[in-house]
Amino acid sequence: MTPWSPAAAHPGFGIRSSLGWLAGGFILLGVLSILAPAAATLAATVLVGLAMLFWGGLGLWMSLSLRAYPEWKLAASGFGLVAGLGVVFLVFPRLGIEAMTLLVVAGFLIEGVFSILFGLRLSPEASGWGWMVASGVAALAVGLILLIGWPGTATWLLGLMLGMNFLTTGAALLAVRGTIRTEVR
């Protein structure tokens, strides 16, 4: 154990203990996000807006420092657009929520179509090709249901998906924690 390791600084916090705390935090975030998906969606949108504003601002600063190069104007325009979108997400969060929801819906639709096509392509070579097609049909159905319900689905979709992700991450951390044989510090 090196003197600068986290375990040396906090002898009671080994890997099992740390995973337990992390799992608890993720599970709590998951449950809260699932119980209040609209609030979680709004929080995620504000966080994305702040990140885009920060990213765009740093990019603009970098672009301005590179004015000796002809590409600086293109870079400044792109980073200005990112910063501008961040401001829009912060000032008009509903617009940001709806835009991000459409991106998620597009992801489901694209995954559905390509999974179906991939499964059909595999049909002569793999006996389990039907599972890939079924997965594609499910993704396509979810995408279409969300699209039909849009913009109403926008208020809860991102928060619910974040909640499910946090919850499964917490459960996975607990499962991993339970399989660690020795306490590593």
Write a structural description.
There is one protein chain. The protein has 185 residues and is mainly alpha-helical. It contains seven helices and no strands. The chain has one domain (14-179).
Strands, helices and their partners?
Blueprint: H1 6-9, H2 15-35, H3 37-65, H4 72-91, H5 93-122, H6 129-149, H7 157-179
Write down the Rg.
22 Å
H/I helix tally: 7
Number of strands: 0
Mean of all residue-level pLDDT scores: 89
Q: What is the succession of H and E elements?
A: HHHHHHH
Low-pLDDT stretches: none
Q: Strand content of the residues, in percent?
A: under 5%
Distance between the termini: 7 Å
Principal-axis shape equals extended
Helix content: over 70%
* Class from helix and strand fractions: mainly alpha
The largest pleated sheet is described as:
none
Number of domains: 1
